[in-house]
Design a protein that fits this description.
Blueprint lengths: L13 H26 L4 E5 L5 E5 L3 H14 L21 H18 L9 H50 L9
C-alpha cells in the first residue's frame, strides 16, 4: 500500500516534531552509511537538533572530509549547484602556533595564580587586583549558594505544607474514636 504525499512544513506539535526528527535523523544517517559502504563514497553528515545536540556521521575521518570540502570550494565555483554551503571553519596555520602557545601559557599562569600558586613575581598592586578578583568571584559563588539554599528551604516548606494538608484532610474523614468508661 502506497503512502500519501506528505506536505513538507514545520510540524506544530512539539512531541510529534521530536519523534519525526529522531526517526528522520536515524534514516538519514543510515542512508549515509549505506551510500558509503555500497558505493565506496566519502560521506560526512553533521546534524544539530533543535535543542543544539550534535549528531554526525563520517565514512572516514570527518576532518579529512571537511578539509577536502574546503579545498574543493576554494578551487571550484559553487554557483552551478542548487545548494550553496559555507563552512565557517578556520584551520590553524603554522604561523599561529607561537601566538596560541603564548596565549595558552598566559592563561595557565593566570589560572595558577587564581589557585594561589606562582605569586612570587607579583607587585603589591597586582596582588591587590588578584585579591579583588577572587573576592568578586567568591561573592558570586556565595550568592548562588544562598539562592540554592533558599530554593531548598522553600521546597521543604511546600512539602511540609502539603503533608500538613494531607494529614488534616485524612483526619476529617476518620470516624471519631470512642472511649468507654467503666
Amino acid at each position: 500500500m502506497a503512502r500519501g504525499k506528505l506536505k513538507i512544513k514545520k510540524i506544530d506539535n512539539p512531541t510529534a516534531r521530536k519523534v519525526t526528527f529522531c526517526k528522520r535523523k536515524n534514516g538519514v544517517l543510515k542512508k549515509a552509511n549505506e551510500l558509503a559502504v555500497l558505493c565506496d563514497a566519502q560521506v560526512a553528515i553533521i546534524i544539530f537538533s533543535p535543542t543544539g545536540k550534535l549528531y554526525h556521521f563520517s565514512s572516514s575521518s570527518m576532518e579529512e572530509i571537511l578539509e577536502r570540502y574546503d579545498r574543493y570550494c576554494s578551487s571550484t565555483s559553487l554557483d552551478n549547484y542548487p545548494f550553496k554551503i559555507s563552512i565557517g571553519r578556520k584551520l590553524v596555520g603554522n604561523d599561529k602556533i607561537p601566538i596560541l602557545s603564548k596565549e595558552a601559557a598566559e592563561i595557565s599562569r593566570q589560572l595558577s595564580r587564581l589557585r594561589g600558586e606562582d605569586l612570587q613575581g607579583l607587585t603589591i598592586n597586582e596582588l591587590q587586583l588578584l585579591e579583588n578578583s577572587l573576592c568578586n568571584r567568591l561573592n558570586k559563588v556565595m550568592e548562588k549558594k544562598t539562592e540554592k539554599i533558599m530554593e531548598e528551604i522553600d521546597r521543604f516548606r511546600e512539602k511540609a505544607m502539603d503533608s500538613e494538608r494531607v494529614a488534616i484532610t485524612s483526619s476529617k474523614h476518620e470516624p471519631p474514636a470512642f472511649s468507654v468508661f467503666l
